[in-house]
Amino acid sequence: MEYSFSQSTNALTSSAVREILKLTQGNQVLSLAGGLPAEDSFPIEEMREAFNRALDLGPKSLQYGLTDGYIPLREWVASRMKQKHMNVGVENMLITTGSQQAVDLLCRVYLDEGDVVLVENPTYLAAVQLFQFRGIRAIPVDGDAEGMDMDDLARKIAQFRPKMVYVIPTFANPTGKVWSAERRLGLLRQCREHNILILEDDPYGEIQFDGEAPYRSIFSLDEHPQGSAVVYTSTFSKIVAPGLRTGWAIGDSRVIQMMVKAKQAIDLQSSTIDQIALHQLLDRFDLEAHIGKIRCSYQERMEWMHELLTREAWTGMKWSKPRGGMFLWVELPEHIHSEKLLAQAVKEGVAFVPGVPFYAAQAQTNTMRLNYTLLDRENTELAVSRLGKAFAAYSQVVAG
Amino acid sequence: MEYSFSQSTNALTSSAVREILKLTQGNQVLSLAGGLPAEDSFPIEEMREAFNRALDLGPKSLQYGLTDGYIPLREWVASRMKQKHMNVGVENMLITTGSQQAVDLLCRVYLDEGDVVLVENPTYLAAVQLFQFRGIRAIPVDGDAEGMDMDDLARKIAQFRPKMVYVIPTFANPTGKVWSAERRLGLLRQCREHNILILEDDPYGEIQFDGEAPYRSIFSLDEHPQGSAVVYTSTFSKIVAPGLRTGWAIGDSRVIQMMVKAKQAIDLQSSTIDQIALHQLLDRFDLEAHIGKIRCSYQERMEWMHELLTREAWTGMKWSKPRGGMFLWVELPEHIHSEKLLAQAVKEGVAFVPGVPFYAAQAQTNTMRLNYTLLDRENTELAVSRLGKAFAAYSQVVAG
Q1: A284-308: per-residue pLDDT in tens?
Q2: What integer pLDDT is reported at residue B352 of this predicted model?
Q3: B97–A267: do the CB atoms touch at under 8 Å?
Q4: Is B266 in contact with A104 (Cβ distance < 8 A)?
Q5: Do A101 and A234 belong to one domain?
Q6: What is the reported pLDDT for B333?
Q7: Which of A257, A284, A311 is the last residue in one of the domains?
Q8: What region holds the Aminotransferase class I/classII large domain (chains A, B) (predicted)?
Q9: Do A237 and A89 have their domain in common?
Q10: Fewer Cβ atoms within 10 Å of its own Cβ: the N or the C terminal residue of chain B?
């Protein structure tokens, strides 16, 4: 039997990076590569009670449920969204298998092969891969610390006539960047003018380190929910636990209902019992206090990594201290190719993600993303010191 | 904001049937429509213990896991598949969000827009919808009680040059049909000869009523797993519980690994804790005894519905007693259009699925699918009697 895969699988060819990272699984390599939450933040005992209560509700916890999701969970999320100036009802909301699935569903119902999506550069690598897998052209827009460059956005809109813009405006992956209010409004204005849908991906918005008021979502700055130019997606992965694979999307009910129809064909629905257990948890849980603890712990870990990197003081290395989220984005001296550095780092027993796969085009090869949430203090120190050794070894080779 | 959906959403337009069935939710309408397992078959207390034990394993039960699925669960499935003459390893297997997702993943990695899939006629309506949503042409092959007609299969292969054939050879949805061994081998021979992949969907194979040896899967009759012309998919939905949304696909490792890459982009992975809990359940559970009970109970319900239909004795109605599975496929007198009958039935307080959406083409409008697994004895009796009233009322209108 000769297998002949679809053309779209060309976008799925395994990257060199993924192959290297595979080698790190299950051995002694310390990983700064993933986007994994700290495991000591998981509310294990509360989840145990929640699953018990879910099963107390009887067989419905194990039966098929609605494609758009368990209604009490959607009501809970709607009420939380309202606190964040997003006045939505259950009909504007769909529960998904992580927010990743929301990106896939929206692509499938809104974009055809050959359509253009504008993206930040760099941006979330799995979103870029998903666009490519769907045959969509992801075109990067220039940006700075405040968000996308509004002039370049206007140029790219004129040149490429995109149907969608994909952004992570709050503690972006991989850069940790926060868009200014002005840029958020600017994006909204241009998109409304040209009838372009915005997909606002917000998995990290709750993980804010400063004591300021939360940054307003772009969705909340627009008309909402009906007629909104924005579909907003978020997840419980970073504030409760990722293993439940529960995220949500909100938007105009016509868009959401089309995503629901697609989901019905694709996988019928996400896990019933996980949704019911999550609702049982949230119903009694002090989520604010829990998020507060996560913020403190992640800020501490971020500060610690910042301190360690500062101490190491490798020549020509630059980074900005993130105001939230899970990642520290590092610019290395220009002569350093971070994919090659990764090979050296894995030998030393530490892994990270090189910057290249985060770029839809014009990749900067001297960049890397470090995750600071997974490892504890001691292991972070060990990881950064191993990284230092790799950096020194690599620099020597390059110099030699 | 003007929304403009992708072309593929044309395949998702809500059917009249779905709209009618929506009206039945949450009220007093008895449903013979869904494919829902009997809720008294769910092992609630065993699942409770299993979730507890999963959480005893610590934070990994709530953390991200492997895209291809929890290894001990895959090992368990592999060992069960071996008992059924399918000698596969974990590298030949992918855990999916129900077997429905396996169909979607295989479509996405194996078929391009415009490609042809041959299907039984009628066949699983959500598979047909999924093919259409992907822009794939689903072409029906004639068949009889033994399976696809081998001559028509040969003709359709020559005419349409399909890349795939989709079949449910054991207790098919919606017909309850079981393919003969000869037809299984015939399909395999023709597909191997023309390098066509077979997608064998087997959600109901375990629900066998007669005491015979289990019917051999087409996958088990082929070379396996490497080089197999078959990708086989099944699920825990019918033998444990559907709310866990856990299914699997097995096949050649190159095909499976391509599906894994697609799943990584689409939703990263299915629920970690559901997979671990399911493994904890299966590890201590007498699954054989449990399946035995389900078989008995479903056979009893099927016999009861058969008896009730026989008693009602509506003129011109025909059906075959299924040897397993969850559905009874009914042919009505030719002048009866079952979608119109449904509207009448819902007024009487009973719902079913009309046959039309199960046909990729050449639909027989005088057919309907009745589910016999969900309702208990009393409600089944009430449902069939309401159906009788609807039938009488409809016949009068037609006669008048």
Answers
A1: 999 999 999 999 999 999 999 999 9
A2: 95
A3: yes
A4: yes
A5: yes
A6: 92
A7: A284
A8: 30-387
A9: yes
A10: C
pLDDT for the residue numbered A17: 66
Sort out which chain A residues have CB atoms less than 8 A from B258's CB and list them: 5, 9, 12
Q: Could you tell me how far CA B228 lies from the centroid of its own chain? A: 22
Q: Name the minimum distance, in Å, from the CA of A323 to any CA of chain B.
A: 24
User: Where does B57-87 have alpha helices with state H?
Assistant: 71-83
The reply to whether A79 and A207 lie within a common domain is yes
pLDDT at B17 over 70: no
Distance from CA of B256 to the nearest CA of A (A): 12
- The predicted structure's pLDDT at residue A25: 66
Residues A323-364 have pLDDT tens digits of 999 999 999 999 999 999 999 999 999 999 999 999 999 999
> Which residue range forms the structural domain that includes residue B351?
15-42+289-399
**Cβ pair B273:A243 closer than 8 A:** yes
> B271: helix, coil or strand?
coil
Pair B63, B35 in one domain: no
**Mean pLDDT throughout B51-66?**
96
Q: Contact A6/B112, CB-based, under 8 Å?
A: yes
Distances, alpha carbon A40 to alpha carbons A45, A318, A359, B369, in Å: 12, 30, 32, 50
Angle, CA B174 vertex, CA B170 and CA B175 arms, to 5°: 65
What's the pLDDT at A11?
86
**Same domain, yes or no, for A188 and A313?**
no
Same domain? B267 vs B359: no
Which tokens sit at B370? 């009745």
pLDDT band at residue B224, thresholds of 50, 70 and 90?
A: confident
CATH, residue A234: 3.40.640.10
pLDDT number for residue A13: 67
Closest Cα partner for A13 from A178, A133, A173? Answer: A133
Classified as helix, coil or strand, B350 is strand
Residue A130 within a domain: yes
Q: CA-CA distance, B4 to A106, in Å (whole number)?
A: 12
Identify the pLDDT of residue B378: 97
With a CB-CB cutoff of 8 Å, which residues 248-307 of chain B face chain A?
252, 254-255, 258, 261-262, 264-274
Residue A1 lies in a domain: no
Restricting to A residues 73-92, those with a Cβ less than 8 Å away from any Cβ of B are none
B108–A133 C-beta distance less than 8 A: yes
Would you call B97 and A133 a contact, using CB atoms and an 8 Å cutoff? no
Residues on chain A touching B102 (C-beta within 8 angstroms): none
3-state secondary structure A194-210: CCCEEEEECCCCCCECC
What distance in Å separates residue B326's CA from the closest CA in chain A? 15
Please identify among residues 8-27 of chain A the ones whose CB lies closer than 8 Å to any CB of chain B. 8-9, 12, 14
SS3 content of chain A, % helix, strand, coil (to 5): 50, 15, 35
Same domain, B215 and B196: yes
- Interatomic CA distance for residues B122 and B330, integer angstroms: 12
Q: Which residues pair with A233 in a beta bridge?
A: A201, A249
CB within 8 Å of chain A, chain B residues 118-147 = 126, 129-130, 133
Q: Say yes or no: B80 and B92 in one domain.
A: yes
Q: How many CB pairs under 8 A join A and B?
A: 240
Query: What residues in chain A have per-residue pLDDT under 70?
Result: 13-18, 21, 23, 25-27, 398-400
* Chain-chain contact of B267 with A229 (C-beta, under 8 angstroms): no
Domain membership of residue A2 (yes or no) is: no
Chain B residues with CB-CB distance to A1 below 8 A: 192, 195, 197, 223, 227-229, 252
Could you check whether the bond before residue A225 is cis, i.e. omega within 30 degrees of 0? yes
pLDDT tens sequence across B173-223: 999 999 999 999 999 999 999 999 999 999 999 999 987 889 999 999 998
CB B64 within 8 A of CB A244: no
- Cβ of B6 within 8 Å of Cβ of A197? The answer is no
Domain-terminating residue out of A284, A303, A338: A284
For chain B, what is the domain count?
2
